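Propose amino acids for all 341 sites.
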């Protein structure tokens, strides 16, 4: 197919979070003309406050996620693109400990360590030796796990998009108007995707998530890698502040951070992992809204001629945004190619 045909194809992407930037980057790499509409700033939605955990072993039983290897490869490629554009690292921590708190988890975590080279089983003595202050429990060290500095990553990925020729408009556009100007319009507006009347039939659901920022106590040494169980705790930064979370709230009143509910929902779980954090000061509460689907996998779908939705990344936005962004751009390129043949 003639490259000129693709370079004449105009695509609008609505939203500048993980999904929007991945879509914009991949489409631009295929030669299409991309304009990104962001009503606020890059990373203004859930992506900007995400804790940054990126790994393959999800859920209560640490089952390997669907297409995890391909997804991790796609995300790592974007992390490299971002770090190169920023000329600075975007990964905050490498490795992750998943703590097994009951017999069922112990059995399934142990099985993961038998099956996968990047997973190492640690008995309770080893976890306590490595992480002073941790409750006595075995776990798995996920060597391939990463913790991404999300604001930096988004900043770098946007710089790369801009450098590649993606245009940005600071606006909340009207879909009908956009469709008259662009061959393809992609909605990646996170929680706000549900507000577009064109998307009412798409099975998306909002789930609020809150994180607490805690002051690390003097009584235990700071952890060096993220700990992940029924909650996660990230290593404290240079000011002694650590992020822990997250809540999954289906019944909520608004999107605002709420210290009372975050404390009630998170602190008992945090204390059950690291008892010394039970009385840690909550310095800040952050809130965002994830979008989930019935299959718990993202949706990439053309809902009408040239109108696409890329959403539903749930709690796995970092894992899946690269892979699904790639797939979306492949689908659009394929459609453009069939138009000209
Ligand atoms: C507390 C919390 C912790 C999380 N931690 C992790 C984690 O550790 N690892 C992980 O993988 N995932 C995590 N997630 C999930 C992750 O944040 C989401 O999967 C991801 O951010 C979804 O990206 P998105 O691009 O679809 O949406 P968003 O990041 O919400 O982006 C949507 C963008 O669209 C813009 N927008 C909205 N409406 C319009 C409009 N009309 N016009 C123009 N622009 C518009 C918004 O301003 C926003 O910038 C977490 C989520 C929460 C809430």
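Proposal:
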């Amino acid at each position: 197919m003639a490259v000129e045909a693709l370079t004449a194809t105009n695509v609008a992407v609505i939203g500048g979070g993980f999904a929007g930037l991945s879509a914009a980057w991949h489409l631009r790499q295929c030669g299409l003309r991309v304009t990104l509409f962001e009503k606020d700033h890059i990373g203004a939605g859930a992506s900007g406050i995400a804790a940054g955990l990126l790994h393959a072993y999800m859920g209560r039983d640490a089952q390997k996620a669907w297409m995890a290897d391909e997804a991790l490869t796609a995300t790592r490629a974007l992390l490299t693109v971002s770090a190169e554009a920023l000329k600075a690292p975007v990964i905050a921590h490498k490795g992750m400990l998943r703590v097994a708190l009951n017999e069922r988890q112990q059995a399934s975590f142990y099985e993961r360590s038998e099956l996968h080279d990047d997973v190492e089983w640690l008995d309770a003595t080893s976890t306590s030796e490595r992480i002073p202050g941790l409750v006595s429990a075995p776990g798995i060290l996920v060597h391939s796990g990463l913790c991404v500095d999300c604001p930096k990553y988004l900043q770098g990925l946007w710089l790369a998009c801009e450098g590649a020729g993606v245009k940005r408009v600071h606006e909340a556009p009207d879909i009908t108007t956009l469709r008259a100007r662009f061959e393809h319009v992609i909605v990646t507006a996170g929680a706000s995707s549900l507000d577009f009347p064109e998307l009412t039939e798409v099975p998306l659901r909002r789930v609020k998530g809150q994180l607490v920022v805690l002051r690390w106590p003097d009584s235990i040494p700071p952890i060096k890698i993220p700990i992940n169980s029924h909650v996660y705790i990230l290593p404290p930064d240079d000011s002694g502040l650590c992020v822990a979370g997250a809540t999954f709230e289906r019944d909520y009143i608004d999107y605002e951070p709420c210290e009372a509910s975050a404390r009630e929902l998170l602190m008992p779980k945090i204390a059950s992992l690291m008892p010394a954090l039970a009385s840690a000061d909550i310095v800040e509460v952050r809130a965002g809204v994830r979008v989930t689907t019935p299959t718990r996998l993202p949706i990439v779908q053309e809902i009408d001629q040239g109108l696409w939705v890329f959403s539903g990344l749930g709690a796995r936005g970092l894992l899946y945004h690269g892979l699904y962004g790639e797939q979306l751009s492949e689908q659009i390129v394929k459609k453009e190619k069939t138009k000209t043949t």
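The CA atoms of residues 222 and 236 lie 6 Å apart. The domain at 205-292 is CATH 3.30.9.10 (D-Amino Acid Oxidase; Chain A, domain 2).
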